[in-house]
Design goal:
By secondary structure, this protein is an alpha+beta fold. The protein contains seven helices and nine strands; from the N terminus they run ββααβαβββααβββαα. A three-stranded antiparallel β-sheet has the order 7-8-9, with helices on one face. It has a two-stranded antiparallel ribbon with strand order 1-2. The chain has a two-stranded parallel ribbon with strand order 3-5.
Length: about 200
């Protein structure tokens, strides 16, 4: 970003040359808001304390320029839906860089399917919890908003995980089919091929 050192940078790295307004009337323009939050997740110290899963994430040079981000965004499938989310790691698993190559727009219902919550899970594999009463392991899977289904009790955490894995992958495929005509074909392919790992 040569020649821009004198400009006020957004979160220390982002540059807006004003080609596209950051405002929509009295409100923040929704694409600008997504750009700003992307930079915040990667470069704002307070945000990284709240959401440490973004530690080590970064934004490509072109995405640091609001004009280039905006022009990329409006060409993407789903850009007309303001509540769709910017995803960086469906196409490339565990990707840490927001860039035009690897980002897609997804409905929240799909994005939350593949978000992991290590802090809430504890010591057991994803989808698994231990019963204190008898020492067995249960498998549960979330289906949509606040719907959690109990899948069964097992003697080992591996057995419980394998049950969860089968159910979760089937559900991801089901949701992918529901959205097939609306989402980026690359996102659809990634969802159909998505595998739940025990290390998730």
């Amino acid at each position: 970003m040569a020649g821009k050192a004198g400009s006020r940078l957004v979160h220390g790295v982002g540059y807006n040359d004003g080609k596209y307004s950051s405002k929509d009337g009295n409100k923040t323009a929704y694409i600008y808001g997504k750009w700003q939050r992307m930079l915040e997740r990667c470069y704002n110290d307070k945000s990284l304390i709240v959401k440490p899963t973004y530690i080590g994430c970064s934004v490509s040079d072109s995405f640091k320029e609001y004009t280039l981000f905006h022009e990329w965004y409006i060409t993407q499938i789903g850009s007309e839906y303001q509540d769709w989310q910017l995803d960086k790691d469906l196409l490339i698993r565990n990707n840490k860089v927001y860039s035009e190559e690897y980002c897609v727009l997804l409905p929240k219902d799909i994005n939350t399917l593949i978000i992991k919550n290590d802090a809430r899970r504890g010591d057991w594999p994803i989808g698994v919890s231990k019963h204190k009463r008898d020492g067995t392991y249960s498998a549960t899977c979330n289906y949509g908003k606040k719907i959690q289904k109990y899948l069964g009790s097992f003697d080992t955490p591996l057995q419980a995980f394998l049950c969860y894995k089968k159910a979760k992958e089937a559900y991801i495929k089901q949701v992918a089919e529901q959205y097939k005509s609306q989402i980026d074909p690359r996102a659809y392919k990634a969802l159909i091929e998505y595998e739940v790992h025990i290390t998730d």
